[in-house]
Structure formats: structure tokens, C-alpha cells
Write a structure and sequence with these properties.
Chain A: Residues 429-538 form the Response regulatory domain. The complex is a heterodimer. By secondary structure, chain A is α/β, with parallel strands linked by helices. Among the domains of chain A are: 21-125, Beta-Lactamase (2-Layer Sandwich), CATH 3.30.450; 259-407, Histidine kinase-like ATPase, C-terminal domain (Heat Shock Protein 90); 419-538, Rossmann fold (3-Layer(aba) Sandwich), CATH 3.40.50.2300. Chain A is 46% helix and 21% strand. In chain A, strands 6, 7, 8, 9, 10, 11 and 12 form a seven-stranded mixed sheet that branches. A five-stranded antiparallel sheet of chain A has the order 2-1-5-4-3, with helices on both faces. In chain A, strands 14-13-15-16-17 form a five-stranded parallel sheet, sandwiched between helices. The longest helix of chain A has 92 residues, at 127-218. The N and C termini of chain A lie far apart (172 Å). Chain B has a four-stranded parallel sheet with strand order 1-2-3-4, sandwiched between helices. Chain B is an alpha/beta fold. The model of chain B is unreliable at 75-86 and 91-101 (pLDDT under 50). The chains are: A alpha/beta, B alpha/beta. The interface between A and B is medium-sized, with 34 and 32 residues.
Chain lengths: 544, 186
């Protein structure tokens, strides 16, 4: 090896400045006091893409993007002036082919005698770095957005939770209201049962009282005081009967004669009566739908209901107002017609409205009304297969709606079951069937008073035995509800077997129990009721 | 602010955009100002035929795009200067952490307002005695702009400084003060 030459594959001991500067891995620029480039290394020239001769003398701004120019002036130049250096400045250079090169730059002032005479700059390619930073920043922004969305979602969820609790509370309140309504109707149902049972018993007790007093009264009692005593007792018994009837109505157990009637005509016919009951200060309006189907109802009971409601309406309008009676065809599909009694009176608050249908509940004060009116109408509606609804607003008025099942055409009136048995002349003999001894005694008394000879049986079975033994009465009078065979069953048997008509006496008006069309008499009854019923049934004249 | 401070015959010193704000205020309240000092001002930054603003329309597009995409420049090291308090470096640190990237919303707004505002027509309306201080090699407001302003204002004179760059009050404070004082003394 020649002496003085470095061994091959080793760095020479001396590196020239040019070697170190020119091909350094970063770009070097020197800028003079006027901002012009006066020196650049090969790397700088390669990146910028302008030949050395052209680059030297160009102002620095030429190789800087507009953003870099602004940033340099606002951030780098002030730092250079005060600190003499600016480090790690990220800017973009503008290359001759137009593309932007992201660099990381370091700047140093060149100072002589306290004056800055130039700047030396170093640039490092930051393309990868910048891309990475941008990704990071974008990811951070996305994370912030997601966090914001999450916060918003949490807020939403919280609100949902809070409203959920409120909604649950509302639902629970609804449920409780529904429960309460159920309890109310169950209560009414129970009261109805109880009332029905009590009323039935009362009717049985009243039958002998009323019947016997009535019969006694017809006997000519000479003593005035005794006559008055009987009259008083009778009047009281009558009032008791009426009360029991109303209770039965509430209990939906009153005897009904449901037929297809034109409720519109019925209500129309009551207009005058209602007007005179209401007085001059109340204007009575009557309306009806032109095409109104018939409804299945008991005409008498409907009239009583309308009167009851009209009286309530009148009492709600002490200073006058308008009372509307309307009958309308209901919305299609419901199969009902609607009878409306509406007033413009004082109305009811919610608590009153809830209790209005309860029997004996009244806001009218002692002595004014029994508190049974609405409960009766309610019972009537239910018994007829309809319903009763009340709407009221304090100060605005009340509307009572009675819905009744519509029927296609009037039901034919069933012929009297015993037209074949028209008789004339003496009343004849009667077979009286009733398991209640006292009632049987009273009825027998009244029959005898009417001229019948009476044979008594304490059950339908006993009666049949008597008939089998050859007894042939002219008529049979039988209670309906008896242990064992019912009066109705007996009636059919006797009619079929012997052609003898039976008058059914019923206190407990079980509509399914007593077949429609059988001659019927309701307990308690007076002599004249018995007489009329027997006349109707058999054509005999009992007018004595 | 003039009203709030109850100024009369005050001297207003504004730098860059601040100088233009001073100009507009002087037009509105001429009685409040006796002198208007404008340091590196520019009424409009975009080149037009017959006018050198310093930025080509393409430059402007690029600038606004860059600002929109959030990148003017980034240097943690510049924070101490902006705080203006080299004795309290920790303040600079704190600011650096939040400032090392220009706040995007503010940068966008500022860039748009600054670079799209054209106040050349307002120049003749300002009668206040004014000084336009122009530096050399200002990458934001080129020398042509100083001459343009003085040419259009009725009562303005130009002071061409030795200092370079856009912030002579930071890079050459002594020369800046001296130039202002000379003007005010006359």
C-alpha cells in the first residue's frame, strides 16, 4: 500500500467542509440582511429544484408558501430578533415544480458587532412526520367529537331515564285509576247483589203486608179511626214498595218488559211533561235523528228514567237554563241508540261525578230526593244491555247519555198465553202454589176475596201431585222462585198437560227465569193488580 | 374605545391590521386623534393589475385553504415571544401547550377578515396627520404598499426604515421608537 494514503474502506482522517456541508442529509441556506439567499447546499438545491445560479440572490419569500411567509414574519423573525434563534419551526417550502414540501426548520441569526447581518437556516424533510402529525390531530379531533357525542348521549340517556321514571309513574297512575274504576264497579256490583237480595226479601215481606191491608181496606169498616189506621199502614207499605222497586232497579233486577220501541217518539211525547215539571225558566229542547232505529227497552221504565234525569237537570239550574232531550242513532258499529239529557247547570266536580251513580248518594240535601234516581237509570241501562255515561264540568253543565241496544224491527207482541182459556161467569177455583207460608196465606186471602175457592200447595211438585190426583182448578197462581221446580216450569207443564193457564208471581225478576209471554204479576201487589192480572189472563170479569 | 376613554387629540399607534383599524377609527372620530402612526400597514393584501398587494390570488386561495385545514405553522418555541415575558418562561410553557397550534376558529376568521378586506377606498377619507412606517423585506406587506398608502392619504408621510420584516417593534425597537418620536416632535 502506498504510504500516506488511508487504508481502503475507512473514513479519511480529514473531512472537508464541502463534504460535510454540501451533501449533508439536511438543507442549509444562508440569508443576508435583506432577506436574500446567498448560499445553499446541494441538498437544498435538490429539494427546491432551482439551479444554484438562479437560486442565489432570490429573496427567501420565493421558496416559502404564503402561510410560511406569514408565520415567519409573525413568529420566527421576532424570535430571531430577541433570542437569536428559532428552533423546530414547522413550515412548508414551495418547490419550483409547485409542490409543497413540509419541513422542520431551525434558524440562527448571524450577528456581528451586535447587529444582525444575516440568518442561517437548516431544513429537515418532515413529509412523513407531517402526515403522521396530521393523522394524530385528526384522530384527536375525532376523539373529541366522539367524546362530545358521548356526553350528549349521556345527557339524552339521563333525560330519558328521568322521563322514564315519570312515564312509569304516569303508567302506574293510569293503572291505579283503572284499578280504582274496577273496584268502583265491583263495589257497585256487590252493592247490587246485596241490594237485590235484600230487596227480594223485602218484597216477600211486603206482599202479605200490602195485600192484606189492601184487602182489609176493601172491607167496609165502620169505625173511622180504624179505617184511617189501615189507610196509614197501607200508605206506608206503598212507600216501602216503591223504595224496594227503586233498589231493585239499581240492582238491575226489576221486572222489565223489554220490547222494541221508538225511543224518539217516546221522548218526544214527554216534552210537555218535562217542560211543565221544569218550570218556565228552563227552556226544553227536543231533538232526534231522523233515521232512528228502534231500541230494546221497557217503555215505562224509560219514561221514569227520563223524568228522573229531567228532575236532576232542573235542580241543577235554579236560575234557569236549557234542558236538551235528544235521541240519536249511535256511531255505526256500536249497535246502540243514544238518549241524551243535557243541562247547562252547575255541573258536578270530579269527586261528585265519581259517586253520582251510587245508590243513596245525593247532593240535594235531606228530604230532597232519595239519591236513587241515577242509580236506577244506571241499573236500567245495564239490565237492558246498554250503558250509562255521565259528562260534567262544574259551571258548564251535565250531559247524561243512556245507550240502548238497537233492534231491527219491532218484536211481535206475544199473544197472551192463555187466550184459549177465556171464561166467563164465576171465577171458579184456583190452585195456589208458593213455598212462603205468609205470602201464600195473604195471596189466598186475596183470591178468596175475589171470589175464588183456593187450594194451596207449598211446592210445584206438590201441585203436580194434586193435579195427578184429579184436581182440576180453573187457574193456577204460582210463585216463580221456589226450591225445586220453578213456577215457570210448572206453568208450561200445566199448560201443555191440562191447558190450564198459570199466573206467575215473581218478586225476583230473573229475566231468563221467567219466560217472556207468560202472564206475570210482580210482588208486592194489591188486590186490584191481582184482579187485573187474572182478568187479562183468563178473560173472567172480577170487577166486583 | 375612543368614547370610553374620552380621548381628544390622542396619538394612535397601530401595527399591521391594527394600523388599518386606527385609520377607520380616525375617519369616524377625527376629533379624537391628532396623530396616526401606522407600522407596516396594508389596505389590501392581494395583487391586482396596477396594484402590488404582496399575495397573488392563487396565494390567497392557498392561504385560506391552509387556514381552513388548520395549518399555518407550528412552533412551541415561539410561545415565549407571544407572551412577551422572557423572565417568566413557565408562562410561555403553559401558553405553548395551548398555542402551539393556531386556534382554528380564530385563525380562520382572522385570516378571512384580514385577507379579504379592501380598505383602499378609505385612505383618502382620513385627514389625520399620519406616519406610514415601512420596512424592507417584509414578507407580508411589500414596500410598494407603503408608497401607495402615502400617495392616497391627504396628510400622510412615509418613513422607510432600515429594519427588515413585518415586526420592527420587536426586531428593531430602538429604530422604531426613534422614528415615531421624530415624527411626533415635528
Amino acid at each position: 500500500m502506498p504510504p500516506g494514503e488511508p487504508p481502503p474502506d475507512t473514513l479519511p482522517p480529514e473531512e472537508t467542509l464541502a463534504e460535510l456541508y454540501d451533501d449533508a442529509p439536511c438543507a442549509y441556506l444562508t440569508i443576508d440582511g435583506d432577506g436574500r439567499i446567498i448560499r445553499a447546499n446541494n441538498t437544498a438545491i435538490g429539494w427546491i429544484g432551482i439551479a444554484r445560479e438562479a437560486l442565489i440572490g432570490l429573496s427567501l419569500r420565493t421558496i416559502m408558501t404564503p402561510a410560511a411567509r406569514i408565520f415567519f414574519e409573525t413568529h420566527v423573525a421576532p424570535l430571531l430578533a430577541t433570542e437569536g434563534l428559532a428552533q423546530q419551526v414547522a413550515i412548508d417550502l414551495k418547490c419550483s415544480d409547485g409542490h409543497r414540501m413540509p419541513v422542520l426548520s431551525d434558524w440562527r441569526s448571524v450577528v456581528r458587532d451586535g447587529r444582525t447581518i444575516g440568518i442561517r437556516a437548516m431544513f429537515v424533510d418532515a413529509t412523513d412526520r407531517r402526515a403522521y402529525e396530521r393523522d394524530l390531530l385528526a384522530a384527536r379531533e375525532r376523539a373529541e367529537e366522539t367524546a362530545a357525542r358521548l356526553t350528549a348521549s349521556e345527557a339524552e340517556l339521563r333525560e330519558l331515564n328521568e322521563t322514564l321514571e315519570r312515564r312509569v309513574a304516569e303508567r302506574t297512575a293510569d293503572l291505579e285509576r283503572a284499578h280504582e274504576q274496577l273496584r268502583q264497579s265491583q263495589k257497585l256490583e256487590a252493592m247490587g247483589s246485596l241490594t237485590g237480595g235484600v230487596a227480594h226479601d223485602f218484597n216477600n215481606l211486603l206482599t202479605p203486608i200490602l195485600g192484606l191491608l189492601d184487602t182489609l181496606q176493601r172491607h167496609h169498616i165502620s169505625d173511622n179511626r180504624e179505617r184511617q189506621a189501615i189507610a196509614g199502614a197501607l200508605a206506608s207499605a206503598e212507600r216501602a214498595k216503591t223504595l224496594v222497586q227503586r233498589l231493585l232497579a239499581f240492582a238491575r233486577r226489576q221486572p222489565l218488559q223489554a220490547r222494541a220501541i221508538d225511543v224518539g217518539d217516546l221522548v218526544g211525547g214527554m216534552a210537555e211533561l218535562v217542560a211543565s215539571t221544569s218550570g218556565p225558566r228552563i227552556q226544553v229542547l227536543v231533538e232526534r235523528d231522523p233515521a232512528l232505529p228502534h231500541a230494546l227497552a221497557d217503555a215505562n221504565q224509560i219514561e221514569m228514567a227520563v223524568l228522573n234525569l229531567a228532575v236532576n237537570a232542573r235542580d241543577a239550574m235554579p236560575a234557569g237554563g236549557t234542558l236538551t232531550l235528544g235521541v240519536y242513532a249511535e256511531e255505526s258499529g256500536s249497535g246502540m241508540i243514544r238518549l241524551v239529557v243535557a243541562d247547562t247547570g252547575m255541573g258536578m266536580d270530579r269527586m261528585t261525578l265519581e259517586r253520582a251513580v251510587e245508590p243513596f248518594f245525593s247532593t240535594k240535601g235531606i228530604g230532597k230526593g232519595t239519591g236513587l234516581g241515577l242509580s236506577m237509570v244506571h241499573g236500567l241501562a245495564a239490565q237492558l244491555g246498554g250503558n250509562l255515561t255521565l259528562h260534567s264540568e262544574p259551571g258548564r253543565g251535565t250531559t247524561v247519555e243512556l245507550r240502548l241496544p238497537a233492534v231491527d224491527r219491532p218484536t211481535p207482541v206475544l199473544p197472551a198465553a192463555s187466550e184459549a182459556a177465556v171464561r166467563c161467569g164465576a171465577p171458579g177455583s184456583a190452585l195456589l202454589v208458593d213455598d212462603e207460608k205468609l205470602v201464600r196465606f195473604a195471596t189466598a186471602f186475596m183470591l178468596k176475596d175475589l171470589g175464588f175457592t183456593v187450594v194451596e200447595a207449598d211446592s210445584a211438585e206438590a201441585a203436580i201431585r194434586m193435579l195427578e190426583d184429579g184436581l182440576r182448578p180453573n187457574i193456577v197462581v204460582s210463585d216463580h222462585l221456589m226450591p225445586g221446580m220453578s213456577g215457570t216450569e210448572l206453568a208450561f207443564k200445566v199448560q201443555e198437560w191440562l191447558g190450564i193457564p198459570t199466573l206467575i208471581v215473581s218478586g225476583y225478576a230473573d229475566v231468563e227465569g221467567v219466560a217472556a209471554g207468560l202472564p206475570r204479576l210482580s210482588k208486592p201487589f194489591r188486590r186490584k193488580h191481582l184482579a187485573e192480572a187474572l182478568e187479562r189472563m183468563s178473560g173472567i170479569n172480577l170487577a166486583a | 374605545m375612543f368614547d370610553a376613554l374620552n380621548l381628544e387629540s390622542a396619538t394612535f399607534v397601530g401595527h399591521s391590521v391594527g394600523a388599518m383599524i386606527g385609520l377607520l377609527a380616525a375617519i369616524q372620530r377625527p376629533q379624537c386623534l391628532s396623530s396616526l402612526i401606522m407600522l407596516c400597514p396594508s389596505p389590501y393584501y392581494v395583487d391586482e393589475p396596477g396594484y402590488v398587494g404582496g399575495f397573488t390570488p392563487t396565494d390567497l386561495e392557498e392561504l385560506l385553504e391552509v387556514v381552513d385545514s388548520n395549518f399555518l405553522g407550528w412552533s412551541r418555541a415561539t410561545a415565549p415571544i407571544i407572551m412577551g415575558n422572557p423572565e417568566r418562561p413557565e408562562l410561555g410553557q403553559a401558553l405553548g401547550a395551548s398555542f402551539c397550534r393556531t386556534d382554528p376558529a380564530i385563525a380562520k376568521r382572522f385570516a378571512r377578515v384580514t385577507f379579504l378586506s379592501d380598505h383602499r377606498a378609505d385612505l383618502p377619507l382620513c385627514g389625520t396627520r399620519s406616519l406610514v412606517m415601512q420596512t424592507r423585506a417584509d414578507m407580508i406587506a411589500p414596500e410598494e404598499v407603503g408608497a401607495y398608502i402615502v400617495g392616497r392619504m391627504p396628510n400622510a408621510e412615509l418613513a422607510l426604515m432600515d429594519a427588515t420584516g413585518h415586526c420592527p417593534h420587536m426586531s428593531a425597537p430602538a429604530e422604531t421608537i426613534a422614528t415615531i418620536e421624530r415624527f411626533l416632535e415635528r
